[in-house]
Amino acid sequence: MLEQSIGCEEWMNKENYLTTGQLAKRTGITVRTLRYYDKVGLMFG
Description:
The chain is mainly α. The chain has one domain (8-39). It has 3 helices and no strands. The longest helix has 9 residues, at 31-39. 0% of the residues are buried. It comes from Paenibacillus donghaensis. Residues 17-45 form the HTH merR-type domain. InterPro entries: DNA-bd_dom_put_sf, MerR-type_HTH_dom.
């Protein structure tokens, strides 16, 4: 789980973007699963 929530303006800042690998490590979800979620439209960005 992510440690804190961030506001929309802060989230939209490209400096705060995570790579797929970074997101996988932070969430415990595999890169393969994240890519699947993106493919079927469950993720945005």
